[in-house]
Specification:
Elements (H helix, E strand, L loop, with lengths): L9 H29 L3 H13 L3 E3 H8 L3 H13 L3 E5 L7 E5 L1 H21 L6 H19 L4
Antiparallel strand pairs: 1-3, 2-3
Helix pairs in contact: 1-5, 2-5
Length: about 160
C-alpha cells in the first residue's frame, strides 16, 4: 500500500504554481476593493451576487451553499451575519420543514447594485484587459474543461 507520489513534472508544476499565484492575487485584490468600495466583505458580495444573479433574489440554503462551494456551517454563519445587517433574511420552506430559503432584502439589493459596477470595473482592469479576446476565449474553454472534469470526480 506504499504508493509513490505522482509528483508534477516541471511544466505541470509551473502551470499550477502560476495559476495559483494569479488566482490568489486576483481574488485578494478584488476582495480588498469590494471591502474598500462598498464596506461589504467578499463573502457578502458573493452571496448577494449569487442570490440576485442565479435565484432572482431567493435561493434554497443548500442550493446557495453548493453554488459557492462552501460548507454548510460557513454559509450558516455568513447568512446569520448578513441577516443581522439586514442584507438577507431566512424564510422557512413550506414544502419541506427542514429546508430554508435565503432571500435578499431591499437593503441587500441596494448593496449589490451599488457594489457591482465598481467590482466589474476592477475585474475589467485587473483581468479582462490583460488578455486579448482570443486568449479570453481560450481561457474560458480551458476553465470549462476543468470544471467538467471536476464534476466527474469524487470530492
Amino acid at each position: 500500500m506504499n504508493e509513490t507520489p505522482r509528483w508534477l513534472d516541471p511544466e505541470q508544476k509551473a502551470a499550477w504554481d502560476s495559476f495559483i499565484r494569479m488566482q490568489e492575487k486576483l481574488i485578494g485584490r478584488l476582495s480588498r476593493r469590494v471591502q474598500t468600495d462598498s464596506k461589504m466583505s467578499a463573502a457578502d458580495y458573493i452571496v448577494l451576487a449569487k442570490l440576485t444573479e442565479e435565484g432572482g433574489g431567493r435561493l434554497r440554503f443548500l442550493e446557495l451553499t453548493k453554488l459557492v462551494e462552501w460548507e454548510k456551517s460557513r454559509m450558516s454563519h455568513q447568512v446569520t451575519r448578513m441577516a443581522k445587517r439586514g442584507l438577507v433574511t431566512r424564510e422557512e420552506c413550506l414544502d419541506d420543514g427542514r429546508g430554508a430559503f435565503v432571500v435578499a432584502t431591499p437593503a441587500g439589493y441596494a448593496a449589490i447594485e451599488a457594489a457591482a459596477p465598481l467590482h466589474v470595473e476592477h475585474v475589467r482592469r485587473l483581468f479582462i484587459e490583460a488578455l486579448p479576446r482570443e486568449e479570453l476565449s481560450t481561457l474560458a474553454q480551458i476553465s470549462n474543461r476543468v470544471l467538467e472534469h471536476m464534476e466527474k470526480q469524487p470530492d
